[in-house]
Specification:
By secondary structure, the protein is α+β, with helices and mostly antiparallel strands. It folds into three domains: about 10-200, Histidine kinase-like ATPase, C-terminal domain (Heat Shock Protein 90); about 205-325, Ribosomal Protein S5, domain 2 (2-Layer Sandwich), CATH 3.30.230; about 370-604, 2-Layer Sandwich (Ribosomal Protein S8, Chain: A, domain 1). The chain is built from 17 helices and 25 strands. The strands form five sheets. Strands 1, 2, 3, 4, 5, 6, 7, 8 and 9 form a nine-stranded mixed sheet that branches. A hairpin with a 3-residue loop joins strand 20 (about 425-430) and strand 21 (about 435-440). Helix 11 packs across helix 15. The relative contact order is 0.09.
Length: about 600
């Protein structure tokens, strides 16, 4: 039988290092946090070979007393905590006293430090956990850390490091997070002797975002600011056009610490609901300040996971602040045409026939009646009499596929607004800003979605009862999931009952769906329910189902619209919320500004 024994300190250090130090970027993060806690105003970082061979961090902070240097590499030795109660009101970035001990256990580390009030500082080294004697060091005030040959004594861990470029990228990310979280710091980063970043203390948050993420992101940011009691939220959110395929561009900082929190990320994504397509993520840089006793950062050695005392209130604050800010913006996508090469506009003495150019095209018929040559419906919208109003049923004004008669043009349109339909899918509209190209299905889908929500809220959704219930055969799992959500479906006018053996009966459906087959609608709903690993909240589920129903009821690409139907749809655009995106997150329109047109034709 194996006996219980205490592990040697060298093994304990390596185990701890496995939790705290994953790669060179982990070292950078810990050393930068120590420099910030020391009151530094400038920190210089230099790495070689992605940080695997050398990491040097030099700061001008308060320094370490010579007598305390041996304790710097001792496990759980820190100047930031005095007793257990301090764990619940932490105001520093570091506090666990594990970082330097962990780094010293898997690298060759030298530490040189001098407090500003001492004439001479001191130095110490730690190689694989072996600590050298303290010696005098006559350097400038502050602390200088050098970490060489990371994981030299744990070759298996070293093999897990990625390429130099990848590790350097992770270091740059750790550097970026601190530069955003500490806007008053002067920071520099060098790799293999070349400068990567220099961030002066005078650089504002906006300047830092532009430096790290470029104009493509910086030019599409909206400032956010809100508060609730002692909690303050500030930062920037990006236009939905900046969406990404991962959540890597979602930065959340709490009391100057970069964190990852599922609840706050969920609030951010929910605020963009309907503005982003499935699988796409918003870009945001959010900063929360709250009392230290409202957050527990002692959850994981990396300190990136936290717990909040009132997470629900924070979720609501983030969601409502971002949602209201997005609603205040005109999020209609703007089309930017590429600039023509200069050579294409150079004057030439060659005959016109020899000059290359685009093939001739038919002019767009912006006229008061359809163009016979193009076969496309065109309309010149004039203001209609005050008593001509839109049909209360959106399907009645825009449902050629459903066989409804179109309504007359609505009131409220500006004079001399002209539009045509292209490819039976897009509407081209002249506006004061420029040429607006509208996706007819996406816009109608958003209009119907908003109409559904209003009718459900007011209890006026029209429901068509079936004289004979319609049986729909499903699998046992599909039937069970459908019947489980019977009440939510009933709110949408879709009545279902159990018939047994995997068959359900459709007893009613929303009248707004027209003659769309109810069984097809139900099967689409069932597929959606089964696509969820865990059923969402009732509110989210209703929104999901409303999107599906709006999609089914909207006009499709390929539906030819009359002038009256085009007028009705464009009028509805100004009556609904968030019409710049369909409920699934696709843009409903692209604006090619008049200024951009003039620039392309060299009028500017």
């Amino acid at each position: 039988m194996k006996r219980i024994h205490q592990l040697p300190s060298s093994v304990v250090t390596k185990i701890a290092a496995g939790e705290v130090i994953e790669r060179p970027a982990s070292v950078i993060k810990e050393l930068l946090e120590n420099s910030v806690d020391a009151g530094s105003t400038r920190i210089d970082v230099e790495i070689e070979q992605g940080g695997a061979e050398l990491i040097r961090v030099v700061d001008n902070g308060g320094g370490i007393l010579p007598a305390d240097l041996p304790l710097a590499f001792a496990s759980h030795a820190t100047s930031k905590l005095a007793n257990a109660d301090d764990l619940f009101r932490i105001s520093t970035l570091g506090f666990r006293g594990e970082a330097l001990a962990s780094i010293g256990g898997v690298a060759q580390v030298s530490l040189q430090s001098r407090p500003a009030d001492l004439a001479c500082g001191a130095a110490i080294a730690c190689h694989g956990g072996e600590i050298s004697p303290v010696r005098a060091w006559n350097g400038t005030p502050g602390t200088r850390m050098e970490v060489r040959h990371l994981f030299y004594n744990t070759p298996v861990r070293r093999k897990f490091l990625k390429s130099i470029a990848t590790e350097a990228g992770h270091v740059a990310e750790a550097f970026t997070r601190l530069a955003l979280a500490q806007p008053s710091l002067h920071l520099t980063l060098r790799h293999n002797g070349k400068e990567v970043y220099e961030v002066p203390a005078s650089a504002r948050l906006e300047d830092r975002l532009r430096l790290f993420f470029g104009a493509e992101v910086a030019d599409k940011l909206y400032a956010v600011e809100a508060g609730q009691g002692p909690v303050r939220l500030r930062g920037y959110i990006a236009d939905p056009q900046c969406e990404r395929g991962t959540a890597r561009m979602q930065y959340v900082f709490v009391n100057g610490r970069c964190i990852r929190d599922r609840s706050l990320m969920h609030a951010l994504q929910e605020a963009y609901r309907g503005l982003l397509m499935a699988g796409r993520y918003a870009v945001a840089f959010l900063f929360l300040d709250l009392p230290a006793d409202e957050i527990d950062v002692n959850v994981h050695p990396t300190k990136i996971e936290v717990r909040f005392r009132n997470g629900q209130a924070l979720h609501h604050l983030v969601f409502s602040a971002i949602r209201e800010r997005l609603r205040a913006e005109n999020l209609t996508a703007r089309l930017r045409a590429p600039a023509f090469p200069t050579a294409q506009w150079t004057m030439s003495s060659a005959p016109a026939a020899a000059m290359p150019g685009p093939e001739p095209t038919t002019a767009l018929p912006f006229s008061t009646r359809p163009s016979a040559a193009s076969g496309l419906p065109a309309t010149d919208f004039r203001q209609t009499p005050e008593n001509e109003t839109m049909s209360p049923n959106p399907a009645e004004s825009l449902s050629p596929a459903n066989g409804h008669a179109p309504s007359p043009p609505p009131a409220g349109l500006s004079n001399n607004i002209r539009a045509i339909q292209l490819y039976d899918a897009y509407l081209v509209l002249e506006t004061q800003e420029g040429m607006l190209v509208i996706d007819q299905h996406a816009l109608h889908e958003r209009v119907l979605f908003e109409e559904f929500k209003r009718r459900i809220a007011s209890g006026t959704l029209e429901i068509q009862k079936l004289l004979m219930p319609l049986p729909v055969d499903l699998t046992a799992e599909q039937a069970a999931r459908t019947l489980e959500q019977r009440d939510a479906l009933a709110e949408l006018g879709l009545g279902v009952e159990d018939f047994g053996g995997g068959t359900v009966l459709v007893t009613s459906y929303p009248a707004i769906l027209g003659n769309r087959p109810p069984q097809e609608v139900l099967k689409t709903v069932v597929d959606h329910l089964l696509s969820k690993e865990r059923l969402p909240s009732r509110e989210v589920l209703l929104n999901d189902l409303l999107r599906l129903m709006a999609c089914h009821a909207a006009v499709r690409a390929g539906d030819r619209l009359s002038a009256e139907e085009i007028a009705a749809l464009i009028a509805r655009r100004d009556l609904a919320h968030d019409t710049h995106h369909c409920p699934h997150g696709r843009p409903t329109a692209l604006l090619f500004s008049k200024q951009e047109l003039d620039r392309q034709f060299r009028r500017i």
